[in-house]
Design brief:
By secondary structure, this protein is an alpha+beta fold. The strands form two sheets. Strands 1, 2, 3, 4, 5, 6 and 7 form a seven-stranded mixed beta sheet that branches. It has a four-stranded antiparallel beta sheet with strand order 9-10-8-11. β9 and β10 form a beta hairpin.
Length: 491
């Protein structure tokens, strides 16, 4: 499968209930992972980061857009950040083997659906733009909700790519597109004078002769009594973070102010921070492959970031220490949970999930995400044991090395224990729903319960083998054994 990132920005940053409802709408799609949610009250805006396969990701973005349109009224919504829609902008970002052309196709398909089913006019932007000027989001959003509302019916330049030339009365319009990875970066100044922030923003942004691939605006952040330079970096390789910060600092000095701190909104590529580290530390002959975590993720022993089941199973079958039984138990448990989710969704008529099934489904979805993480965590835990053992061998008289080894051993027991406990909790939860299982779904329910029992048994076996080693090292294992006893007795 090919994976994409999607970063919906919606016009609400103050009401936790609305924010949660929109995030939950995206999270309800199987196969889509919510990586991050950032909200800002002054901007009255939230940024949601999703990742998944194309079709599922598009469905998640649609559900989030629909929920935002239901809950956000732009005639009453105001904030520092420019906005044109309840769901303001939805970009698709390719990564791995995915291509920009495929991301554009996702944007176009979602745009057609939003316009048709939600009656919200859609403007394609970025790499998906059909007019050169619309590649710039600021151009598309110029005038914001009110300006577009007043001009869209009479100004041909405002005609949307999809939908009628009129905004949705409360949800406005939406920009949907495709783009490379973007870094949202804010710098706070030692002044509340927003005119200073706006002047600095103008001096650094590309369209006014500043830095390449940099967009910037100046805002007043009232809750902090500070001015902020809000920056979007559309290509951090052409213009890295340190260069932006240094120019802001130099421009600020002209007004007798300083940057007091900066922040990343949402997620950031690892290499962008490593660029900053190399620059700030003036590292010489530094190779990023020598970073510990990257070594752990490498194909010669780790298995993180696998993108297909075939890759994972091939590594599981190989003559390698990881992944092993604990990781496999987590995967089997996740399969059991997923089947349980499917059976639960079929417990009522299509589109009408019983009220008592809603909290059950939420718990199952959270449990599946936890077990998915444990597929990787278990292998990382044992890789940590191997590395710690090697360190202790190299430093046989070092107490720190021994302490690190014992800590790694304990972690290698704790992860499979968490797998067993999670799988057991789901098994018990599904047992309470057995009476609602339709007869045609009985085999799926039985398979789910079988997978969960196998996950518990496999994980417990991994806990026990680590308990043996911990006991040999003189470490107390009472807490681990007490947890296993509770599992066995059904307490």
């Amino acid at each position: 499968m090919k994976f994409f990132e999607c970063v919906p920005n919606f016009s609400e940053g103050r009401d936790p209930a609305i924010i949660t409802a929109i995030v939950d709408a995206a999270r309800s799609v199987s196969g889509v992972r919510v990586l991050d949610i950032e909200s800002n009250a002054d901007h009255n805006r939230s940024v949601l980061t999703l990742v998944g396969e194309g079709a599922a990701l598009s469905e998640a973005a649609f559900r989030a857009t629909k929920k935002a349109a239901e809950l956000i009224d732009l005639t009453r919504q105001h904030g520092e950040h420019p906005r044109m829609g309840a769901m303001d902008v939805v970009p698709f970002i390719p990564f791995g083997e995915s291509t920009m052309e495929e991301a554009v196709s996702l944007a176009v398909a979602l745009g057609q659906r939003v316009a048709t089913e939600l009656s919200i006019p859609v403007y394609l932007y970025g790499k998906a733009a059909r007019e050169p000027a619309r590649s710039d989001l600021a151009y598309v959003r110029k005038g914001e909700f009110e300006g577009i509302r007043d001009a869209v019916a009479t100004d041909p330049a405002r005609k949307p790519d999809f939908g009628e030339p009129r905004v949705h009365p409360s949800a406005g319009a939406i920009a949907i597109g495709a783009r490379p990875v973007l870094i949202a970066y804010n710098i706070y100044l030692s002044t509340a004078d927003v005119s200073v922030a706006k002047a600095i923003a103008k001096s650094i942004r590309a369209r006014d002769g500043g830095l390449a691939e940099v967009k910037a605006l100046g805002f007043e952040i009232k809750e902090r009594n500070l001015a902020q330079v809000s920056i979007n970096m559309t290509d951090y390789r052409r213009t890295p973070l340190p260069r932006v910060f240094e120019l802001v600092r130099a421009e600020a000095a002209r007004y007798g102010v300083l940057p007091v701190e900066s922040e990343i909104v949402g997620l950031i590529p690892e290499d962008a921070l490593l660029d900053a580290a190399e620059h700030g530390l003036q590292l010489n002959k530094f190779e990023r492959k020598n970073i510990l975590e990257r070594k752990l993720r490498a194909d010669d022993g780790g298995f993180l970031r696998r993108t297909s089941l075939a890759d994972y199973l091939g590594t599981l079958a190989a003559r390698t220490s990881t992944p092993g039984g604990g990781s496999a138990s987590a995967l089997v448990g996740a399969l059991g949970v997923a089947l349980g989710e499917m059976v639960t969704r079929f417990s009522g008529p299509a589109g009408a999930l019983p009220a008592d099934a809603v909290p059950v489904l939420e718990k199952l979805t959270a449990a599946r995400a936890q077990l998915e993480r444990c597929v990787e965590d278990d292998s990382l835990a044992y890789d940590g044991v191997r590395l710690a053992r090697k360190m202790m061998k190299n430093l046989p008289n070092d107490e720190g090395a021994r302490g690190g080894y014992l800590k790694a051993l304990n972690r290698a027991a704790e992860v499979p224990l968490s797998i067993a406990l999670e799988a057991d909790a789901v098994r018990r939860l599904l047992q309470t729903r057995e009476g609602t299982v339709k007869e045609v779904m009985r085999s799926d329910y039985d398979a789910a319960m079988g997978f969960l029992r196998a996950a518990i048994d496999g994980a417990v076996a991994n806990v026990r083998i680590n308990i043996v080693t911990l006991r040999q090292e003189g470490v107390s294992v009472e807490a681990l054994e007490a947890s296993l006893k509770k599992l066995e007795t059904g307490a």
